[in-house]
From TrEMBL:
Protein name: DYH5 protein
Protein origin, superkingdom: Eukaryota
Organism: Setophaga kirtlandii (Kirtland's warbler)
Annotated coiled-coil segments of the chain: none
PANTHER family in UniProt: CYTOPLASMIC DYNEIN 1 HEAVY CHAIN 1, MALE FERTILITY FACTOR KL5
Length: 167
């Protein structure tokens, strides 16, 4: 009876965690004017969410329940282990992406506040993006790179618009 109750609890947790994972994989809808710092903020937020989830999973309360179910040879543990692995991967991806995107942060300010003759910043920025593409185990997908380049382009357009309207 205790095992059944604990299995119910784990199944509820499993459902909630799956929901978090599904939501994290959904395509983001962003406005056309969103710049590259929004990409960094997105990954920082995602890192915070998954780290909180990992902290909860590693809590003594959860560990006790899992160990009781292991002793009872519960079949719910297979799903739990897969979810635990998925969360760990998602947390590692977010942490890694934040680390790499922080290397671009120093370019975001000048890109936003420069005159349209911002060409001096572009080669260094592109070199940094290229290094991320070459070295990041997670961020080097066409999806992530396209999103980043789109935001960089948006920022360049916004900077030019601002310059024209103020000039």
């Amino acid at each position: 009876e205790v095992t059944e109750k604990l299995e119910e609890v784990v199944m509820i947790w499993t459902k909630q965690i799956r929901q978090v994972l599904v939501e994290s994989e959904q395509i983001r809808r962003e406005a056309d004017h969103v710049g590259p710092s929004a990409e960094l903020e997105h990954w920082k937020s995602r890192m915070s969410s998954f780290n909180s989830l990992l902290d909860e999973i590693k809590s003594s309360r959860v560990k006790k329940i899992i160990s009781i179910l292991q002793a009872a040879r519960s079949k719910t543990l297979q799903q739990w282990k897969e979810l635990d692995r998925s969360i760990t991967i998602a947390a590692n991806e977010a942490k890694d992406n934040v680390r790499y995107l922080y290397t671009l942060d120093k370019f975001f300010g000048p890109l936003a506040h420069a005159s349209p003759v911002m060409m001096e910043h572009i080669p260094s920025l592109m070199n940094a993006v290229f290094m991320i593409f070459c070295t990041s185990p997670y961020y080097n997908t066409s999806e992530h790179m396209t999103s980043l380049f789109l935001k960089i382009t948006n920022q360049m357009i916004n900077t030019c618009k601002t310059y024209l309207c103020e000039g």
